[in-house]
Amino acid sequence: MKLVLASASPRRRELLENIGLKFEIMADNSDEEFVENEQPFDTVKRLAKQKALNVAGRVQSDAIIIGADTVVSIDGKILGKPKDETEAEEMLSLLSGRRHTVFTGIAVIEKSSSRIVSDFEATNVKFRKLSREEIKEYVKSGEPMDKAGAYGIQNLGALLIEGIDGDYFNVVGLPLCKLGIILKQEFDVKVL
User: How far apart are CA 147 and CA 186, in angstroms?
Assistant: First the structure.
């Protein structure tokens, strides 16, 4: 069965490659809209499903499509990708010295049956206290600009984080354990 990743994220691509899955990439570039008062876990599940459905509509052959979406949540506020450097600095200032939660939704669609299975993962992350200069230097690196919450745990952003409670790969952008279980149990895709 052909697998399709409905994402242009180089991090998600690398994670799937690291576990040996063979897949194609077909990005969904639709806008991610946040709904007021929607819970973060509902937001990521909705957006992951939207991405997977959009790509499923473009896939010509039978396939299993994987969609994913990640957000950061703090103080009841959802942080997506920053629009510019100023917003990235604001997000990092908000996270500095505090705990927040990273939510990633996944949606898996089997095109032949139109069957959809979706779920989410949540991981708590603790930032160390950051100076104004550290925030500006990190933003200047360019790393925050395409990442929810304006940071990536796997590169320079690792220097901002004191600890995590939960799935590391969820913070990177794809909860591999949960995805593997869904693929194996729900769609009979051999992962291990």
Answer: 29
